[in-house]
Amino acid sequence: MRTLTGITPSGTLHIGNYFGAMRPAIDAQVRGDCYYFIADYHSMTALTDAAARRAFTQGIALDWLACGLDPKTSVFWRQSDIPEVCELTWLIGSLTPMGLLERAHSYKDKTAKGISPNFGLFAYPVLMAADILLFDTNLVPVGKDQKQHLEMTRDIAIKYNETYGETFVVPEAVIREDVAVIPGLDGQKMSKSYGNTVEIFGDEKALRKKIMGIKMDSRTPAEPKPDADQNLAIQLLKLVAPADVALDYENRLRAGGLGYGDLKKALFEHYWNYFAAARTRRAELAANLDHVDAILREGAERARVVADAVMKRARLACGLR
Ligand code: ADP
Ligand code: TRP
User: Fold this and answer.
1) Which residues contact 232 (CB under 8 A, 6 or more apart)?
2) Does the CB atom of residue 214 touch ligand 2 within 6 A?
3) Could you report the per-residue pLDDT of 78-91, keeping only the tens digit for each?
4) Using a 6 Å cutoff on CB, does residue 20 contact ligand 1?
């Protein structure tokens, strides 16, 4: 069973990305046959700063390796090192109905926010489908927001298979419901576009300030809080603290007597400790960037073996060869 996922280098990774995407992907490594890539082509619809793209791509490589991606077990590469994915985008895009793309939430949300749409933004689900289909993928661990893209990928694969004969494996999304949507500092979905993120790696002082700045209501510490499980700091604490510790804080908040300041302090400490080992590994990797480059190049060579075979199959099926 092949697992594949991609992450777009369009910003600094936050704990929403970590629990929603990286962690399930990293845990899946024990089963083997994992394919993970940095989706640098995908970053082009929103980001036009070349230096930033390079920096984000490198940053994400460091983040994933530091957080436990094992390049010996898993195949880890940069999307643009296998440009055939763009060729496949054309093959499958020519079978993708306009109506399907017009219904895409991501496109509708972005245009509704006033982002001026370009062809790339509109075609993005097709490129994503190509990412997945090019590697005979069975399982795709993603956050809930990507569910529709996986449905579109399946529709596209089925349509190609029906039109040209069995060519693609039809993949399935793996959505971890317990961490489906990680809330940000303002309570809505954590997302770099909402400016409500807690980064995985970053400056200690700035991050402490962010967490201590979480807005709480005006109830006094002594007041019992029957809605303790709804509290944002409790929800985040559950991600980074041992279950019994988080439950203890929740119970104390519910009973009354625990102040919000103390709760946020505890949240920061647990969060900071949770990523301590990864932080050390990341610093080591950052001191040896040639090694990181070599990992990505080697990954692309391994990924190419599969991509070449699938591409041949797809060209042959549709009569390009
Ligand atoms: P952002 O919303 O910050 O732009 P991306 O869209 O780049 O994040 O998401 C990258 C990956 O992280 C996707 O698989 C997405 O589902 C996941 N992800 C992002 N934010 C969250 C969140 N708040 N909760 C759970 N998963 C998330
Ligand atoms: N679109 C995904 C996101 O924004 C990233 C991505 C690109 C991806 N290609 C993929 C995820 C293929 C899974 C499989 O999060």
Assistant:
1) 183, 185, 187, 214, 216
2) no
3) 999 999 999 999 99
4) yes
Domains recognised in the chain with CATH numbers: 2-182+288-318 (3.40.50.620), 202-274 (1.10.240.10)
Lowest mean pLDDT among 41-55, 106-120, 148-162: 106-120
Token duo for residue 84: 């055939």
Q: Is the Cα torsion angle 136, 138, 140, 145 positive or negative in sign?
A: positive
- The answer to whether the predicted template modeling score (pTM) of the entire model surpasses 0.70 is yes
8 ligand 1 Cβ < 6 A: yes
Q: Is the dihedral of CA 194, 199, 205, 209 positive or negative?
A: positive
pLDDT tens digits for 197-220? 999 999 999 999 999 999 999 999
Residues classed as catalytic: 110, 189, 192
Q: Which residues contact 226 (CB under 8 A, 6 or more apart)?
A: 254
110, two tokens = 């972005």
Residue among 19, 37, 42, 182 whose CB has most ligand 2 atoms within 8 A, to mutate = 42
- Give the closest residue (by CA) to ligand 2 atom 11: 6
Counting Cα atoms < 13 Å in the Cβ hemisphere of 270 gives 21
Q: Are strands 172-174 and 139-141 parallel, antiparallel or unpaired?
A: parallel
- Residue 9 Cβ < 6 Å to ligand 2: no
Whether pLDDT at 177 is above 80: no
> Is the C-beta atom of 199 inside 6 A of ligand 2?
no
Mutate to test the pocket of ligand 2, among 7, 13, 80, 176 (most ligand atoms within 8 A of CB): 7
